[in-house]
UniProtKB/TrEMBL annotation:
Pfam families: AMP-binding, AMP-binding_C. SUPFAM superfamilies: Acetyl-CoA synthetase-like. Residues 412-487 form the AMP-binding enzyme C-terminal domain. Residues 20-362 form the AMP-dependent synthetase/ligase domain. It comes from Propioniciclava sinopodophylli. InterPro entries: AMP-bd_C, AMP-bd_C_sf, AMP-dep_synth/lig_dom, ANL_N_sf, ATP-dep_AMP-bd_enzyme. This is AMP-dependent synthetase. One of its GO terms (molecular function) is acid-thiol ligase activity. Signal peptide: none annotated.
Length: 503
């Protein structure tokens, strides 16, 4: 196991930390056809650890976890955190990419559900493996003791790769403990909270839902069919879920293509939004859709374990569009190119410091030096502060469009387009243009059955935006390209535009 040297004494494992509050008979994971209690979950973790030990896997090994969201995924991940290093894999990757990443990360064993063995069994070669089928008739052994150095690696989390090739972020036990405690504090999570999980656990946002709800003795209701959002709403109703977390595409689909806005879901008491900017008009719709639920607009990165900031729900009306301020234990600043704080209203890059900040990337010293400087994380997001110290993101540095000598925020163009309620989602990108430098192109998805035309959208934007921000062309498509976490991938949108002959 690699990591920074620590002067702190060794602690009980992160798995012990996460499971400490869950009583044996309390529900931990709710699946479509069964409920797994904390006692059953602990027994499965012990079975997996015993199986790894029997297969000769040494303590501290990197353990691949590849499964769909399930009680098995949770048990496998917790087993890997108990004296090993968890390496979660996306179930959407090609088998050849899984092989490459497993070799590069040095995975010594794999925990995989049986349903994925056909697709990925050969991808891990002859590494020792444990599947859910191995646990069916296994006797639960005694709980094994494990200690960890908090500054050693707990997990390697692959970044989403929305702007570049994925990297493996080193998340230490201290990172995980700190971020979990901070999120629980500002959300006010309790043992009777039940989160509907539509985000994959292999994504840091999805993993944070697991960390926080297990830590307080709450439960996770797993929904793997969000392509049909009404199924998720039925599960919220049936299982009396108190929370829902999503990325922008999650809420765009719920608000513009489901009954979420008119259906009463009284059990919901908090909604979490992160993973990209949800336009203010949709935040307002979200608040109105379920007025009994507190809406938390949040901001984070994989390099920060998960969360960096949140906007208190009571400030949504006065600070609409802001990501708030740093969560407990996190300091955020907006700085210029020299690293000096900017004045209110002046754009700069967000940098972050706190115990949740990763020590860096696995095997990539150059990228680590570029991203982590002076003990701070450079986020790559351009933002401005208001007079009260609240942060408003302008755009990703990589997503700005340079057109006719102006720097245009793609998010501002998208937000203006989405004021048309017949649009479900939109993406603005720049394409090479000999005169403008980059021409603005908007790609959008309509509600099913809508007759809204490209000219209707263009007319709305001409009346809404400054002239230099109006897209040169608009394209309506059936769907925008999302990564395995449900996040929009601008690079693929640009490819779509180029292939359509816009460049």
């Amino acid at each position: 196991m690699t990591g920074r040297a620590s002067k702190a004494p060794r602690q009980g494992s992160t798995t012990d930390f996460l499971l400490a509050a869950g009583s044996p008979d309390a529900p931990a994971v709710v699946e479509a056809k069964r409920v797994v209690t904390y006692g059953q979950l602990r027994a499965d973790v012990a079975r997996i650890l015993a199986a790894l030990n029997a297969r000769g896997v040494a303590p501290g090994a990197r353990i691949a976890v590849l499964a769909e969201n399930s009680a098995f995924w949770v048990a496998a991940y917790l087993a890997a955190l108990h004296g090993h290093v968890a390496v979660p894999f996306s179930t959407k990757l090609p088998a050849a990419e899984v092989t490459r990443l497993a070799d590069w990360a040095g995975c010594a064993a794999v925990l995989m559900d049986a349903r994925h063995e056909r697709a990925y069994g050969d991808a891990f070669g002859d590494r020792p493996r444990v599947t859910d089928a191995d646990l069916a008739d296994a006797t639960a052994p005694a709980w094994p003791d494990a200690e960890v150095d908090l500054d050693q690696d707990a997990a390697l989390m692959f970044t989403s790769g929305t702007t570049a090739s994925p990297k493996a972020v080193r998340i230490t036990h201290r990172n995980l403990w700190a971020n979990t405690a901070s999120i629980i504090e500002y959300l006010g999570l309790r043992a009777d909270d039940r989160m509907l999980v539509v985000l994959p656990f292999f994504y840091c946002y999805g993993a944070s839902l697991l960390h926080t709800h297990l830590r307080v003795g709450g439960s996770l209701a797993v929904c793997n069919t969000f392509t049909f959002p009404e199924t998720a709403l039925q599960m919220i109703e049936r299982e009396r879920c108190t929370g829902l977390a999503g990325v922008p595409s999650t809420y765009q689909l719920l608000l513009r293509a489901s009954s979420f806005g008119t259906r009463r879901l009284p059990s919901l008491r908090h909604l979490q939004q992160a993973g990209g900017k949800l336009p203010p008009v949709l935040i307002e719709e979200l608040v109105a859709a379920q007025p009994q639920a507190r809406v938390f607009v949040m901001y984070g990165q994989t390099e920060a374990t998960a969360r960096l900031s949140y906007l208190p729900p009571n400030l949504l009306s006065t600070k609409l569009g802001s990501i708030g301020r740093g969560i407990p234990g996190v300091t955020l600043a907006v700085v210029d190119e020299h690293g000096d704080p900017v004045s209110p209203g002046v754009a700069g890059e967000i940098v972050a410091a706190g115990q949740n900040i990763s020590p860096g990337y696995l095997g990539d010293a150059a990228a680590t030096r570029e991203k982590f400087t002076g003990g701070r994380l450079r986020t790559g997001d351009l933002a401005v502060l208001d007079e009260d110290g609240f942060i408003f993101i302008v755009d990703r540095l990589a997503d700005f469009i340079k057109s006719w000598g102006n720097r245009v925020s793609s998010q501002e163009v998208e937000g203006a387009a989405l004021r048309l309620t017949d649009l479900v989602s939109a993406a603005a990108v720049g394409v090479p243009d000999p005169d403008a430098g980059e021409a603005i192109v908007l790609v959008a998805v309509r509600r099913r059955g809508s007759t809204l035309s490209e000219e209707d959208i263009a007319a709305h934007l001409r009346a809404t935006l400054a002239k230099h921000m109006v897209p040169r062309s608009i394209r309506l498509v059936d769907a925008l390209p999302l990564n395995e976490n449900g996040k929009l991938v601008k690079a693929r949108v640009r490819d779509m535009v180029r292939e359509a002959g816009e460049a």
